[in-house]
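Escalation from tier 1.

The customer reports that the assembly of four entities below gives different structure tokens on two consecutive runs. Tier 1 could not reproduce it. I'm attaching the input and our single run for tier 2 to review.
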Amino acid sequence: MTHSFESIAPLLEGQAIELPSWAFGNSGTRFKVFATPGTPRTVEEKITDAAKVNELTGLAPTVALHIPWDKVDDYAALSAFAQDKGVKLGTINSNTFQDDIYKFGSLTHVDKAVRQKAIDHHFECIDIMNATGSRDLKIWLADGTNYPGQGDLRGRQDRLAESLATIYERIGENQRLVLEYKFFEPAFYHTDVPDWGTSYAQVSALGERATVCLDTGHHAPGTNIEFIVMQLLRLGKLGSFDFNSRFYADDDLIVGAADPFQLFRIIFEVVRGGGYGSDSDVAFMLDQCHNVEDKIPGQIRSVLNVQEMTARALLVDRDALLAAEKAGDVLTANAVLMDAFYTDVRPALAGWRESRGLPADPMAAYAASGYQAQIAADRVGGQQAGWGA
Amino acid sequence: MTHSFESIAPLLEGQAIELPSWAFGNSGTRFKVFATPGTPRTVEEKITDAAKVNELTGLAPTVALHIPWDKVDDYAALSAFAQDKGVKLGTINSNTFQDDIYKFGSLTHVDKAVRQKAIDHHFECIDIMNATGSRDLKIWLADGTNYPGQGDLRGRQDRLAESLATIYERIGENQRLVLEYKFFEPAFYHTDVPDWGTSYAQVSALGERATVCLDTGHHAPGTNIEFIVMQLLRLGKLGSFDFNSRFYADDDLIVGAADPFQLFRIIFEVVRGGGYGSDSDVAFMLDQCHNVEDKIPGQIRSVLNVQEMTARALLVDRDALLAAEKAGDVLTANAVLMDAFYTDVRPALAGWRESRGLPADPMAAYAASGYQAQIAADRVGGQQAGWGA
Amino acid sequence: MTHSFESIAPLLEGQAIELPSWAFGNSGTRFKVFATPGTPRTVEEKITDAAKVNELTGLAPTVALHIPWDKVDDYAALSAFAQDKGVKLGTINSNTFQDDIYKFGSLTHVDKAVRQKAIDHHFECIDIMNATGSRDLKIWLADGTNYPGQGDLRGRQDRLAESLATIYERIGENQRLVLEYKFFEPAFYHTDVPDWGTSYAQVSALGERATVCLDTGHHAPGTNIEFIVMQLLRLGKLGSFDFNSRFYADDDLIVGAADPFQLFRIIFEVVRGGGYGSDSDVAFMLDQCHNVEDKIPGQIRSVLNVQEMTARALLVDRDALLAAEKAGDVLTANAVLMDAFYTDVRPALAGWRESRGLPADPMAAYAASGYQAQIAADRVGGQQAGWGA
Amino acid sequence: MTHSFESIAPLLEGQAIELPSWAFGNSGTRFKVFATPGTPRTVEEKITDAAKVNELTGLAPTVALHIPWDKVDDYAALSAFAQDKGVKLGTINSNTFQDDIYKFGSLTHVDKAVRQKAIDHHFECIDIMNATGSRDLKIWLADGTNYPGQGDLRGRQDRLAESLATIYERIGENQRLVLEYKFFEPAFYHTDVPDWGTSYAQVSALGERATVCLDTGHHAPGTNIEFIVMQLLRLGKLGSFDFNSRFYADDDLIVGAADPFQLFRIIFEVVRGGGYGSDSDVAFMLDQCHNVEDKIPGQIRSVLNVQEMTARALLVDRDALLAAEKAGDVLTANAVLMDAFYTDVRPALAGWRESRGLPADPMAAYAASGYQAQIAADRVGGQQAGWGA
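Tier 1 run:
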């Protein structure tokens, strides 16, 4: 019932999945962060690792930075360094959750001085974007409260709108403000941007260059995420994806690891809604934590998972789907979808990679490369990168 | 820390909670509907029961109808009947989920003929509104799918927009279209209006007289409902509440029975956001199923729960809250809220009721009235009302 | 990394998945039950449909009965009828949730007379088992309460233990009592057997021939079901499966439709724990509702899903898994599992079926058979079977 | 409908809620740990703060230690120090989740050497118990995996049983091993002791002095926790409570802050099941994190919440409840419960406290005491205590 791999192969050209610099640093839970040999100490080492992922997969041409974790003195030099490694700098991610002043909020804080500090941080991020040539400023806000009564929900929302408007004014003509939403964590009672509806309402008030970032791990249990994908595409407000997977909360596991069928459905809605391909400006990114697994192959596995699932989603015969829907034939409609999902695209993709001068099996190629042993030997001393660094 | 009851008592005047006619009929689960003696056989008997609730509580001056369950030949006569009993007819609820033709959807159906039938049903509802003088047309849509692939999510959403626009055109100057959202059930894979964001996006496209209905039982586990209340009030799109409570899914239990503190927080946000009082047009309604408990006292208990919680919400010292927030004093802020919640307003409310010629204890008054025995004796034969009737 | 299909093919021989008679009748939600042409009116017609599933798949040699829905005067005759169609009668399911007397419970009811009636019903079921030669009495209990305070949780649990002990005494030497648990529905506040722990504690107190039934749709959101499978196998108390799938609550969708990877993990734990194959007495059953899809092909699809997933689970190279675990190599361990999951076993299974005289594609064979048109034409008049019948 | 406060007041005597030493140190999320002035640097300072809570409330006579966070050279001296401050040392909590060697598990680890190290740690804890005179060894196990395939669930469970048996052998005649369960975190795919059933099965295999610890924040969404309380009491295996509250995951908020009615129902089941009072050996403890609120008043608020809720639970007229249940009168049964819950016990408790020489309002007394300013001034320099210390 599905299309042939040959017929969809051209659509795989040019697929790009941005890597987060922080995925190469150490991460963990509130209980423990386990360190691993070879972990980067500098942003240059993170970029070098990211470039390795791109070298082996051809899928990850850009690296997202997180400020201040990836702050440097000379962004032009950093861009040049990246280019030298074969990648570019991508999205700039702001951080207003680690300074003591943000204990009770940042862009939503009841105190104007704190809000201004948070706004200034975003101005600094925009300056960096101008230096790096980055398109997107991504704002994930940790703001929220832990106890009912702690904050005036409405006051905070109004202040958020005001702060975002101030930041948005500074955004360049070819730049975008992308607002991420998250169900909960680190705040437990309420989060100031908890759902797509809030993010959508806020960015709609800003203007055309403000869009929503959908992190696949940031929803309530049972949420139909592909429905949100469809809706945001329909409303013209889907800016980017943070891909990862989760069983319970925001586990930040390897994308596709927890529920591969859900990933398939999500990407299928992206394709169906026009969010995939060179005509679309929807950005695909990873946002993951490799707490117990090796980080570089963890990223390789992740971009391959996205690629494989994209291939399966492209295989779906949408005409057959529509015909079955019109006939009220539920089982056939479902079978059309499942047929694509159950198709083993891996052998065809291996061949496709080889035909482009890439390793047929990037995981095996990495294991055979000696890179991991090399960085473990080389990167001795210094402070390994992590969320606090 | 709280205001005195006396200071907030005037604000309790005029509180009105609409009763659903169907709460007086039999209801149940897919496993079994238990019947009870005295259950109404006709819409007139339902209205009579609803009027009893209002007589004893002074809180329930209107009754919502559900079409076709409450269809009659002469709505003017029905209005007069209600008026005679001391109540008015309120919101008209449409039903596009029980006709065989709606198996795969109604306003979203892939077949134009089915959509037209569903639109026509809403036209009929508007005709009834014109006859009864009702302000609100409430649309809860059961549309959705059970299996991935069964429907084109985007196509359905676009058709929904088109259908709603057609209905909205027919809505009178002093009428409103209120669109309810629901997380899941009766559809299991996807629901066409699953969250407030979708309802908000749809009604925003329609115009000023289209708003959102928030049913307190229609959310994913863990959802912060009072945040949504705040947001919809902020966006000017909160039309009405369907009150009930739930432990797991859409249990439709007595409002306040499952999580009284949540009800308190919700009503507090209504008050804080300007959604309560004579200046606001936010409608308070019940939408409940009394599967195992007596229906009339179940409704009395429910409106009392809303009234008691409203009193507690009004007791909150909002200046003290704001001061604590500004001071970053989390424990005091929380204490201000909890103090109002833990205040036992019941004795004061009993006195307040008596001062208005109402029974101090409406539950006891009902039990003592002999009404239940009377209807059990009188209403013999005929077909008891239920969801299928 | 996986075994070859040839090496695991012998293990597919003899796989048996019991069909529920009620899956062939109409079902729905509290909102609506949609009827379909050709739906059985009698238990004989249900068995006939079930036999069709077995004829085309070779996977469904037995049919479970539900009492009183499938009550007949002569069970020996019914057994003969089934045998004639090529199947046998299997598990007997009791029903203590549709009689008015059970409004507040059955085996747990506070009134001894009601409990006795429920016990007597189970005695009747055991009589039927003796007549049909069935091994298993499956008890799913709808008992529970909707409101805190409504029932004494402890008293109900103690009475449940007493009732079960009385029933267990009547269970024959070669028979089993299988106690199903369910998170919620139809009761909303509490369910008397809500989790595996309760079922395990209750059956452990009874004796060796009492075991637990795990319905894959009866858990809280986020529950790791394969862990429970492992634990019950370890404790020697996994009696049977009710297979189905769900997105939110107890949706009773086609097994594998909502989360195929979860089904894979569950069956893999069954295999790893010794619960699969001729040495094991763990029973595989379906418990599904085909509300909007055709029922017979819905059942065919379901048993095929179980078979395909069993093949994938058998492909897993457990030695490689263990080696990776010992090496602390998370990515390789996960890859070993995923490799089996992503293997497309469908072509090999089609060939395997043909080599046994079965249709390569049972879904297509059913569609081509004309059976559906025939029963739609034949089964006119009478009362279609459903949950209330 | 409720009992009078006077009639239940005697039952409030002697209520004891153990405080966790770690609640006085800094805590946070994976994103940030905010420090506060006055935070203890040593276990002695933690005990001093805990003693302050007891001094003002009379409710917290013991302090739980966490090893190695609270390791000292001389436990006899530490006991004497505590006694001097007016409190005793209580439960000893082990920690096998912060050493690098435990990355892939501790008592369940596939490598015997790692398991032995974890067992030895528990032996050390028992030595400490012998020195401090503590009764309970509490084991909360972070063991689990993040990815399907990473671990052999069954092998881990069997090794857990073996490790626990080894530890249990060392437990003294008057000591207990208490095994805590937790739904998820820090492991995301599976946790080795995820639910009460697993903990129950494991401790049942050990013997009489092994029981279950129920942490109120460690359940799946929607879980009826009071049912588990009832069941564990019924089975004789409820050892202790870790009280806290949560909206989403294991938020570790102040007990009663998120859902006070749930806390009421839980304590009511404790009372109804015989788990409260001098005859019972069920231990009440707090396990909380005060991430954004002051820690000492956070603990005061917490023990007061438990006390207030206990008073309300004791007020319930259980005879009236039973009578309503027998009559099938759902609304009255629920009203009996709610009447106690809505009773404002705070004024009576204030008087009761005063009559015992305690401050009527411990929160106000703490604020007025100058203690917070004092410790902020005194505790300068050194390393503030936290989870990593």
